[in-house]
Design brief:
11 helices, alpha/beta, 468 residues, Immunoglobulin-like, globular, six-stranded mixed sheet, Rossmann fold, 35% helix
Length: 468
C-alpha cells in the first residue's frame, strides 16, 4: 500500500498547530486559509494549504469531561484544488476485461465498445495495456508507450476477443499489475480498470484475499478501480478490491453505460492533482486509534495507522473519520494525536504537512455538551446511515421488506434530527434518500429476484459512496 516518503528533518514551525476556525455552515472545507488558532462554539477546525491540496481537521469534542467517557471523533477532509485549464497528464492504464462465457451477447459488445472508446482517447506518451481473463489470462497488448499509429492495432485486439470459460479475476488483476510495474511510469497516474459480470471462481475468490493483492499493488502506486456489470457479480468482493486498491467502485446494471463509466475514470486520471495521498495518525501516550471509518488502514509505528487515499483528481474530496479513545484522568490540555499528510504533486515532488489534535479535559459536563461539534457527529451519523442501508438492502434481497422499511425509517429520522441541529446538508440529503428507499422497500421485496438484486446493488453502491 502507499507509504509516505521518509521525511527530512526539520524544526516544527511555531505556527503549528494549524488555524482553528469555524466551518461556514453548508460549505465543505471552509476554514480560512493560513495558520494560527481560533476557537468558536461551532467547534475546532484546523486547516492548511499544502501544494495543490487543502486539508482540514475537526474534532467532535474540543472539550472532554474529567473522569468521563473518553471517546473523540476526528474528521480529516482533504480536497484537491480545481485546476483551471490544466494541461492533460500522461497516464498509465491497464484495461482488464472479463471475457468469461457469461459476458456473451450485448454485455460483451458494450464492454468492447467501452474499451474502444478509451483507446480513442489515448494520446502520445500514454502507457496502455490490455489484459483479458476467463479460465485463463491473456496479455492482449503488453504495456508500452502509445503512439497514434498503434490505435488501429489496439482496436483490432479488442475485435479479436471472444467470451468463453470461467472467471479468473485474480489472474487478470495480477497480470495487469505486472504489466504496469514493468513499464516506465514516472510520476503519471497509474490505474487498473477491472470489469467483471460474475463471481470469481478460479484462483483467489474471497474479497479479503483479492483486497490484499490490490493493496500490494497500491503500494507501488497502481490504483485499482472495479466495475461490476449486471446482476451476477459479488458487490462485496468488488468493493473490497477497490478499497484495497485505493480506487473507485461502480455498479453498472446496463452495459451501455460502461463507456460513460470508463470516461469518468479516464477524466479523473487525466486531471490528477495529487498522487499517492496518504494520512498517518500517531496517537499520543494513553490514546488508542479505535477505528478508521470509510477507508482501509495499516498499522504504523507504535499504535499508529496509515490510511492511503489514492490519487485525487481536480476538485476531488476525501473524508476520513477516526475514532480515538483516551483516559480523561486529569484536567487540562492533552495531545490526542499527530496527523501527517503526504503526497506527490503534478511534478512528482513529495510534499507533507503536520497537524496536532488536542483536547481540553474539564470538570464541566454542560460545557462539554454545549461545545460538541455537530458537523463531525453528523458525519459519523452518515456512516451509521450507510451501514443501515447496506443491511436493509440485504433484507430486501431476502424478501423481508417490512423489516427493512422499519430500520430505514428509524435511521432516516435519527439522521434528519441531527441534520437539523447541525445544518449538515449532506446528512439531510442522505436521510431523504434513505426515507425514499424505506418507502420502496416492501414493494421491492415482493418483486422477482432480478429486481431485488438490482435494489440491493444500487443501495450498497450508494452506501459505499457515502462513506468516502
Amino acid at each position: 500500500m502507499p507509504t509516505l516518503q521518509p521525511l527530512p528533518p526539520r524544526p516544527r514551525p511555531t505556527w503549528l498547530p494549524f488555524l482553528l476556525a469555524l466551518l461556514i455552515p453548508g460549505l465543505a472545507l471552509a476554514c480560512p486559509p493560513g495558520h494560527g488558532r481560533h476557537r468558536d462554539r461551532g467547534g475546532d477546525c484546523q486547516g492548511a494549504q499544502v501544494g495543490p491540496l487543502r486539508w482540514e481537521v475537526r474534532s467532535s469534542h474540543p472539550l472532554m469531561n474529567w473522569r468521563g467517557p473518553g471517546r473523540v471523533l476526528v474528521e480529516v477532509k482533504v480536497r484537491a484544488d480545481r485546476l483551471q485549464a490544466a494541461k492533460r497528464r500522461p497516464i498509465a492504464m491497464a484495461i482488464v476485461l472479463d471475457r468469461s462465457g457469461s459476458m456473451r451477447g450485448s454485455k460483451w459488445q458494450d464492454a468492447a465498445e467501452a474499451a474502444r472508446a478509451a483507446i480513442r482517447r489515448l494520446e502520445p506518451g500514454d502507457i496502455v495495456s490490455i489484459v483479458s481473463y476467463a479460465s485463463d489470462v491473456h496479455v492482449d497488448w503488453p504495456a508500452r508507450s502509445f503512439s497514434p499509429a498503434q490505435r488501429d492495432d489496439l482496436l483490432r485486439v479488442i475485435d479479436r476477443m471472444e467470451p468463453t470459460g470461467s472467471t479468473f479475476l485474480e489472474g487478470g488483476l495480477r497480470r495487469a499489475a505486472e504489466q504496469l510495474q514493468r513499464a516506465r511510469r514516472g510520476d503519471r497516474p497509474t490505474r487498473i480498470l477491472l470489469v467483471s459480470d460474475g463471481n470469481a471462481n478460479v484462483g483467489v475468490q474471497s474479497g479479503d484475499g483479492l483486497s490484499r493483492i490490490a493493496r500490494r499493488f497500491a503500494a507501488d502506486g497502481i490504483v485499482t478501480t472495479t466495475i461490476g456489470l449486471g446482476l451476477d457479480y459479488n458487490e462485496d468482493t468488488m468493493t473490497a478490491v477497490a478499497d484495497g486498491g485505493n480506487g473507485s467502485y461502480y455498479y453498472v446494471r446496463d452495459s451501455e453505460r460502461l463507456a460513460d463509466t470508463f470516461g469518468t475514470e479516464l477524466e479523473r486520471m487525466m486531471t490528477t492533482a495529487a498522487r499517492r495521498v496518504a494520512l498517518r495518525v500517531r496517537p499520543s501516550n494513553g490514546v488508542r486509534v479505535r477505528e478508521v471509518l470509510g477507508y482501509v488502514s495499516e498499522p504504523f509505528g507504535d499504535g499508529g495507522v496509515e490510511i492511503p487515499l489514492g490519487d485525487l483528481a481536480s476538485g476531488a474530496e476525501r473524508s476520513v473519520l477516526l475514532s480515538l479513545e483516551l483516559r480523561c484522568d486529569r484536567q487540562g490540555r492533552q495531545r490526542l494525536a499527530d496527523l501527517e499528510i503526504g503526497f506527490e504533486d503534478r511534478s512528482g515532488e513529495t510534499l507533507h504537512d503536520h497537524a496536532d489534535v488536542d483536547v481540553d479535559v474539564v470538570d464541566d459536563p454542560r460545557r462539554v455538551e454545549r461545545e460538541r461539534d455537530q458537523k463531525v457527529l453528523g458525519r459519523y451519523e452518515e456512516h451509521h446511515l450507510a451501514e443501515e442501508m447496506k443491511e436493509s438492502a440485504e433484507l430486501v434481497k431476502r424478501g423481508r421488506g417490512q423489516e427493512a422499511q422499519r430500520r430505514l425509517r428509524a435511521a432516516s429520522q435519527r439522521a434528519k434530527d441531527l441534520a437539523r441541529q447541525s445544518g449538515n446538508k449532506a446528512l439531510s440529503k442522505a436521510a431523504d434518500e434513505a426515507e425514499d428507499q424505506a418507502e420502496a422497500a416492501p414493494a421491492a421485496a415482493a418483486r422477482p429476484e432480478p429486481a431485488r438484486e438490482h435494489y440491493k446493488k444500487s443501495m450498497k453502491a450508494r452506501a459505499y459512496q457515502m462513506k468516502k
